[in-house]
Please model this.
Amino acid sequence: MKPLLNFYLIDDSTFDLFIYEKLLIKSGITENVKTFNSAREALKHILSAGTDLPEVIILLDLQMPDMNGFDFIEEYDHLPEYLRDKIRIFMLSSTIDTRDIEKAKASPHIIDLLPKPLEVNFLRKKLSI
Amino acid sequence: MSDKAITILYIDDEEHNLHSFKASFRKQYDITITSSVVEAELIMETKDFCIILADQRMPIMTGVQFFEKIRTKHPKPIRILITGHTDIGAAIDAINKGEVFRFIDKPWDYKYVETAIAHAYEIYKTREDLKMRNIELQKANEELDKFVYSASHDLRAPLMSVLGIVNLALLEEDVKSQNEYLELIRQSVKKLDTFIINIIDYYKNARGVPVVTEISFEELVTEVQATIQYLPEYGNLKMTTDIDQAGVFHSDVMKLRIIFNNLINNAIKFQDKSKPEPFVHLTVKSTPSHARITIADNGSGIKESDLDKIFKMFYRAGATNSGSGIGLYIVHEAISKLGGEISVTSKIGQGSTFEINIPSIAK
Model:
């Protein structure tokens, strides 16, 4: 049986949210995509969902106003373990800055940094599905 | 710095030398005298000196020993040694250990001392200027670094969006939906173009030679209006103007265009579409010496906590629909280059008013 994957997209660009939501669904990897226009909004959602939070894969943009991707990771670090256990985070960014790449690699919470535009097959490989 | 008096500390165990020195030079320089090296060190804790003169033959320690002692803690002052009779050993020590800039022979000659002080001060000032310049350069470098980081993101992100849309469009079998994708590509390309224009504006503003001409605010506003009213995001915004120009006003038309363009574009971009009559109202009141410009809208408004940050480079206040955060920075830069000021009042959900005051630039 195919596992049912839930995706959360966090990006300040409504464009990219639209594109990647469509792409994920079209590629058949998932049927459930939730989009968040800001990292703060996503964090609020995760906290309020509490024990009802399903297992999710987060695709997190890096450069966002107010709270950027790394700021989000910092907040995420303080989340209770039962929430973190349900979440897997990939960073999805167009950055080519080596400092960003190193920082993403060094973070224990970020599985990998995926370059934009998203290649679903690449993501599949990372998820080993 | 240049109009401040040259500060000099003179140390000599012979009091009459101190007093005759002070009497000769007190009108030209800010002079502090002491007969004790111990006291000299204490004085240096509380006051900065450009030049220190010390007698070589003193009790407790020689002038050279004194210089050697204070050199690491007070590297800035230029050191001059005053000697009665120089032996070669003392001279070598003075240069190698005390890093003395110059010797003055006793009894000293007024002109000679004056020249020595003038040269010493020149070196002091050059070093200080260099230090200042270095700090400025460091700051400029940090800013450039930040600029490159943010600019590369803002250049690359819309391109990657386009690529994403193309990938998606290729998966699509339904040809009809292609138009939707093309529209997205158009918007993304437009965003990229706006950013590039902004960057060019910024550089013209920062590096370009200002061209001061007679300004007709009426013409300028009409021109800016013409370029924006056909924008798809213009919507049903109502733009009204009230221009009252009395007499000739001189300024840099290029900078004014950047200012009007950005502020009016922001009013369009951040209009509150839920309101029945979104508007932007522009007023100009100018006299031959001064112009006051206000741009008021009933758009989405700015959070109070963001008000003091919106003019910073790459600061993006809104989470949605926001640009790269460079527009208002450019506006702020342009206005300061014109010698003016900008202020903003805003209430979230109600609208914003930007007020600009600029002087007429004398030709």
